[in-house]
Amino acid sequence: MTGQPRIGDVFGELLRDAMAVATGVGPRPLAGGRLPRPVIEVIERDDGLINGAPAAHYLDGPADWQPHDHRAVDRVRGDTLDIGVGAGRIALLLQEREVPVTGLDVSPGALAVCRRRGVRDLVHGTVDEHAASGRRYDTFLLLGNNLGLIEGRERAPAFLAALAAMARPGAQVIAHGTDPYGTRDPVHTGYHEYNRRRGRLGGQLRLRLRYRELGTPWFDYLVCSPEELAGLVHGTAWRLVDVDDRDAPYYLATLRLSA
Ligand SMILES: C[S@@+](CC[C@H](N)C(=O)[O-])C[C@H]1O[C@@H](n2cnc3c(N)ncnc32)[C@H](O)[C@@H]1O
Q1: How far apart are CA 69 and CA 228, in angstroms?
Q2: Residue 116 is part of a domain; what is its CATH number?
């Protein structure tokens, strides 16, 4: 016993349990061995902040989505790569609309949940690994705040280059981000300052996720303003062509492959 979590497939385990709670099928986490308990994703930040978020929303159908999710899906066209597909909520609606969609995820357990829910085309891996497959796409989705996967100044060029390598002419990226700078909460403004002092973007979160006895390694996840995103995209194969911030502080950024 080290007091530290065992490194494992946190997303996969929590999505499997969330699905068991939602469907009543399969072993569920129980309180006191009797009562079903909600599945909570525990998010640790490297300043010691801990948050818990119910995992059930990863399974939500369109009726329970945020408005920006609907607007994102309405912008999809052509062959689509859903990056960080999670439990497949977006991919399932695209399949229903007969959009050819591939779900990509690093979590084997998330892919297993997707498969059980009926997502047909699934790939295990990162965008860099998938870029080697030779498959090409017209739309790349980074939904459920997954703009965060661009991580920060160091990772963004390589991440965007991997997408460009898989992009057909005229391809687009539709990414859901959150502008972190509207808050006055000193826990967050202090963290943004701490990050800048160590040469990072203010909202470049250093996180690890935990579920039950499992944890992920520490990783970077970016929450940035549209202006910071424009800076990260500048000089890559992509142009930031639209920011829809009708649900501010959330926004949908559209990038287009430069001609
Ligand atoms: C916040 S969830 C979003 C899920 C889904 N997009 C949605 O909107 O419900 C993040 C997902 O991204 C996956 N993920 C994390 N890092 C990844 C990476 N480097 N490449 C691909 N998927 C990743 C996780 O396993 C998880 O399923």
Answers
A1: 22
A2: 3.40.50.150
% residues pLDDT > 90 (the chain): 91
> How much distance in Å is there from the Cα of 118 to the middle of ligand 1?
18
pTM, 2 dp: 0.97
Cβ contacts of 161 within 8 Å, gap of 6 or more = 236, 237
- Range(s) of the domain holding residue 141: 65-180+221-257
The preferred substitution site among 149, 150, 163 for testing ligand 1, maximizing ligand atoms within 8 Å of CB, is 149
Q: 22-36, 47-61, 194-208, 217-231: lowest mean pLDDT where?
A: 22-36
What confidence tier does 33 reach under pLDDT thresholds 50, 70, 90? confident
Residue 105 in contact with residue 121, Cβ under 8 Å? no
Compute the distance from residue 86 Cα to the ligand 1 centre, in Å.
5
Q: Residue 193 is which amino acid?
A: E
Residue 36 lies in a domain: no
Measure 250 CA to ligand 1 centroid, in angstroms: 17
Nearest CA to ligand 1 atom 24: 84
The mean pLDDT of 160-166, rounded to a whole number, is: 98
| Count of domains observed in the chain | 1
The answer to the question of residue 29 being in a domain is: no
Q: Give the Å distance between the CA of 8 and the centre of ligand 1.
A: 15
Query: Domain for residue 123, yes or no?
Result: yes
